[in-house]
Amino acid sequence: MTALDVNSAELEAEIRAMGVLARHAADVLAHADPARKTDALRRAAAEVRGARAELLAANAEDVAEAEQSALSHALLDRLRLSEGAIEAMAAGLEAVAALPDPIGTELARWSRPNGLDIARVRIPLGVIGIIYESRPNVTADAGGLCLRAGNAVILRGGSESLRSSRVIEACLRAGIAAAGLPEAAVQLVPTRNRAAVALMLRMADLIDVIVPRGGRSLIERVQRESRIPVIAHLEGLCHTYVDRGADLEQARRIVLNAKMRRTGVCGATETLLVDRAVAATHLPPILADLHAAGCEIRGDAETQALDPLASAATDEDWTTEYLDAILAVRVVDGVEAAIDHINRYGSHHTDAILTDDERSAAPFLERVESAIVLHNASTQFADGGEFGMGAEIGISTGRLPPRGPVGAEQLTSYKYVVRGNGQTRP
């Protein structure tokens, strides 16, 4: 705890001072040499590797405290770092460094009959405020992606990961400074006081975009209170639909991975839908695999008739993101019923169809109203790194862009550059 936790006037002054520093940093980054940003990211990756022991020790303290406060299994899983996770953070920063710099990219260009030459050019968003829960790796991913896109960022991480995130922030800032860029390009709010969130949401003069990443309550609060445009990352109520045209052995592998690879990530399948035409042949072996892996099944009446271990699903199960080894299962009357169920109950995050029949795949991919739709692949591929973006801030589920994984390119805007040779408008 710091003095900021108890003195609201000092807290407000501190958060606004961070905003001023971020604005100045954003002005520099908007015109920074791409090679210098690349150098900063690579140096930050080296700093993360060099701080491995310090980071593991800080994370152990965070985890121990979180366990005493009865944090959920899913949040503990997101909080805990390992040697492999730290290496993945460093590798992620290097992957972002290797991406083409998006700033200054000419998106389109055309000429008018009067001779005006018009170009649409990519520019940074400016200052981004990111509010997230539990995951300390978001500190590295968000800091790196914002830097690549020429943005300054103010990070308000979960209180349970503050020690870990402070170490990561220090690594990022050291790499940035060593490359000759302003350290204030990445700043972590240094307090657990939740009032800091409210202050950030009112700083429309200093923050250009707010990105919340967490549970429904956090997203709804930010959308309700923010005076700043919001890029929302809603919960991952993901579905996998096994169609009558699905290959059984392939479906078994994919469903098991989609649910059980990591149950606490937003791309984990939470509801399994199975075509009635193949329920008797496909559902029992799929559910047997899940039971063997320790997954609890909550099914409709037809599912229970085929699986005596399944408990009865309620209406609430169709709208629940478990983030745990629990799966809701429903038998549906073909692809049309599957599409209707997903569009009614889903969160428009990620949904998959398993089938070798293009007559089922085509309408599913066209009409499921989600940011990511997959054909014959696990929903756990809903990840910016898997999309070749190096990393992601999250999966945006809103209708307006950006949608899906938010990487460096998605953290930009554009302006129009118009070149003339003396034209005046009649």
Could you describe the 3D structure shown?
The protein is of the alpha/beta class. It has 2 domains: 3-233 and 406-419, Aldehyde Dehydrogenase, Chain A, domain 1 (3-Layer(aba) Sandwich); 238-386, Aldehyde Dehydrogenase, Chain A, domain 2 (3-Layer(aba) Sandwich), CATH 3.40.309.10. The protein is 42% helix and 19% strand. The protein contains 14 helices and 16 strands. It has helices at 8-29, 34-50, 52-68, 73-79, 83-97, 137-148, 162-178, 195-201, 216-225, 248-260, 279-292, 301-306, 334-345, 358-367; strands at residues 106-111, 117-124, 127-132, 152-156, 186-188, 209-213, 238-242, 269-275, 296-299, 311-312, 326-332, 350-354, 372-375, 395-396, 404-405, 412-419. The longest helix is centred in the N-terminal third of the chain and has 22 residues, at 8-29.
Summarize the structure.
42% of the residues lie in helices and 19% in strands.
Mean pLDDT: 94
Distance between the termini: 65 Å
Spans of at least 5 consecutive residues with low confidence: 1-6
Instruction: Give, in spatial order, the strands making up the sheet with the most strands.
Output: 10-9-11-8-7-12-13
Topology:
Elements: H1 8-29, H2 34-50, H3 52-68, H4 73-79, H5 83-97, E1 106-111, E2 117-124, E3 127-132, H6 137-148, E4 152-156, H7 162-178, E5 186-188, H8 195-201, E6 209-213, H9 216-225, E7 238-242, H10 248-260, E8 269-275, H11 279-292, E9 296-299, H12 301-306, E10 311-312, E11 326-332, H13 334-345, E12 350-354, H14 358-367, E13 372-375, E14 395-396, E15 404-405, E16 412-419
Parallel strand pairs: 3-4, 3-6, 4-5, 7-8, 7-12, 8-11, 9-10, 9-11, 12-13
Antiparallel strand pairs: 1-2, 2-16, 14-15
Helix pairs in contact: 1-8, 2-5, 2-7, 3-7, 5-6, 6-7, 10-11, 13-14
